[in-house]
Design goal:
The chain has 222 residues and is mainly alpha-helical. Helix content is 58%, strand content 11%. Strand 2 and strand 3 form a beta hairpin. Helix 4 runs parallel beside helix 6 and helix 7 packs antiparallel against helix 8. The N and C termini lie far apart (43 Å).
Length: 222
């Protein structure tokens, strides 16, 4: 068994990540609301995205099916969401989260056809944005290989490329209750949107940080 768990991105933080903390807090509150039965269970169909409930394009990104689902998503949201919040304003970050979550869920529905819930699609989109802005930045991670474990500083492009390939392989070999097409669709959407944001200079990636993916591509083509 090989497992990598990121815990921090090495980057220059220019803004407070309070918008990401607000999203994390909202996801936790919604989960606890249903877990403690404070929120009625018959509300769930109105929050999950399906062909009968298009409002779920927004609300389904705040839903989680289990503690493991919630914790896994929140770890990735904490690490990569905080890094992205450091180079963009709160309104843009929140718009990205819900827009990419909706795009990921829509792609999943069009290909798979089943309802979907969870922040995984939105987070996958943010991973795509991260890939566009921070391909060379190191991601501090824990690794576990059978009975061996330790720390690993891995370049963002390598970690996310391996993750993306794993999503494709999991279409045939992974658990059937995971929306892999939402992960794939979200990441591709986020990568494209991240390149656009970089081109329009809507993010504050400084000259002292590592070059963005667009910088790398333009240098190689010039």
């Amino acid at each position: 068994m090989f497992l990598v768990i990121p815990y921090e991105v090495r980057t220059l933080t220019q803004r407070s990540p309070w918008a990401n903390l607000a999203v994390i807090g909202l996801c936790i509150l919604v989960f606890l609301g249903f877990y403690t039965n404070y929120l009625p269970e018959n509300l769930v169909p109105w929050l999950i995205f399906s062909s009968e409930n298009w409002l779920g394009l927004i609300t389904s990104s705040l839903m989680h099916a289990s503690w493991g689902h919630l914790i896994g998503n929140m770890i990735f949201l904490w690490v990569f969401g905080n890094a992205l919040c450091g180079v963009m304003n709160w309104a843009l970050y929140l718009a990205l989260f819900f827009l990419l979550g909706g795009a990921a869920d829509l792609i999943h529905l069009l290909i798979d056809g089943h309802p979907v819930l969870g922040a995984s699609g939105a987070i996958s989109g943010l991973l795509g944005v991260f890939m566009a802005l921070y391909p060379l930045n190191r991601v501090h991670s824990f690794y576990f290989i059978v009975f061996k474990f330790g720390l690993w500083d891995v370049p963002g492009w390598l970690l996310l490329t391996c993750w993306f390939i794993l999503q494709f392989l999991s279409l045939w070999s992974g658990p059937e209750d995971i929306a892999y097409w939402a992960h794939i669709g979200g990441f591709v959407s986020g990568l494209g949107l991240g390149l656009l944001l970089s081109k329009l200079e809507l993010v504050d990636v400084g000259e002292y940080d590592n070059p963005s993916l667009l910088d790398i591509l333009l240098r190689r083509s010039s």
